[in-house]
Write a sequence for this structure.
């Protein structure tokens, strides 16, 4: 006679959908709950489902590095599932975003992975709404579907990144519904001590620049027209060159002061 | 036939479908899908003219004639080279195919 084990399931909000995470390995449950605590939610029917690895066999990698790698993989799977679920419904940019906790005005900062989004969120996020450090999902009416996922934090000693609850590093989820007030592309290529440089991007070049930093753009109705309209509405796209994330504080404050 | 070394005067060109195209006073961009990936391409003036001149089965010879009518001779006088370079760029961008 076999006995089936009950599989724990976590539910998290990501880009406006509820993603179910099956957790057959009890060792993962606690770390996952802590990492995703900011967006844990009640179950909802019809959302995507992510299956995590089962219990490790004898000799499996039970080290902290092994666990960190597994948690990182799960985050990627949740991201992929949420993006797929919202394809054709949202503009989805590879970007971090912070919001004004009273008005919801939000700045999205577009950048490929590993080029400054999480650092910017950690540096300038306290006192603001943490929208995401990964994917900004924008509706046609500029409202942003949040994805306040765990931060992938690089260890000083190297090794895999740690999936870290945003709440544990002093961030808060948005209290007011975020809406897109501005968008910049990050270029962390200035020498230390230099003031930031802002450059307005030609509207057509902006579409070319943003293309690789979007997900499922082709599944939106008349995507170039829609994206062009979106950029026009928020005053266009700018590139910001900087060295230290803290130097961007005035820019963030300026955009977050916008009103609808 | 992707290698332009193999392109001859009678090689036929045809347009490949795009997801979207945005024309403005300042230029043209197109969105090209390739499987799950996509690419946004800004067209040069020459590229726009080449695409406008290509119909189903248009040959290089016919395209050169059409481009001469549309734009006149290129500054260096080498029409064939100019057309081939433009076609190569459009093929690489996924906007044209040559058979």
């Amino acid at each position: 006679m076999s006995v089936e084990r009950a599989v724990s399931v976590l539910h998290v909000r990501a880009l406006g959908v509820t993603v179910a995470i099956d957790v057959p390995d009890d060792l993962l449950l606690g770390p996952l709950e802590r990492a995703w605590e900011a967006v844990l939610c009640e179950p909802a029917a019809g959302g995507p489902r992510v299956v995590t690895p089962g219990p490790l066999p004898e000799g499996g990698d039970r080290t902290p590095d092994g666990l960190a790698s597994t948690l990182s993989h799960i985050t990627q799977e949740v991201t992929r599932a949420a993006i797929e679920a919202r394809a054709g419904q949202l503009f989805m940019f590879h970007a971090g975003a912070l919001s004004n906790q009273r008005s919801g005005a939000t700045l999205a900062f577009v950048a490929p992975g590993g080029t400054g989004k999480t650092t910017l969120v950690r540096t300038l996020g306290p006192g603001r709404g943490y929208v995401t450090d990964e994917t900004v999902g924008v509706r046609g009416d500029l409202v942003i579907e949040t994805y306040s996922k765990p931060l992938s934090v690089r260890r000083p000693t190297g090794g895999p990144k740690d999936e870290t609850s945003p709440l544990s590093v002093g961030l808060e989820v948005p209290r007011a519904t975020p809406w897109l007030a501005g968008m910049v592309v990050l270029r962390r290529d200035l020498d230390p001590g230099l003031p930031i440089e802002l450059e307005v991007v030609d509207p057509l070049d902006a579409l070319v620049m943003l293309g690789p930093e979007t997900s499922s753009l082709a599944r939106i109705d008349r995507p170039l027209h829609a994206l062009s309209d979106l950029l026009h509405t928020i005053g266009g796209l700018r590139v910001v060159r900087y060295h230290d994330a803290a130097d961007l504080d005035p820019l963030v404050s300026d955009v977050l002061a916008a009103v609808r | 036939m992707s290698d332009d070394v193999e392109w001859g005067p009678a090689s036929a060109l045809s347009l490949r479908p795009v997801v979207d195209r945005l024309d403005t006073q300042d230029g043209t961009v197109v969105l090209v899908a390739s499987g799950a990936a996509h690419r946004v391409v800004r067209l040069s003036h020459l590229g726009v003219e080449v695409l406008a001149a290509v119909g189903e089965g248009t040959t290089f010879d016919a395209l050169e004639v059409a481009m001469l009518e549309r734009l006149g001779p290129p500054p260096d006088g080498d029409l064939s080279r100019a057309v081939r370079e433009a076609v190569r760029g459009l093929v690489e961008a996924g906007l044209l195919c040559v058979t």
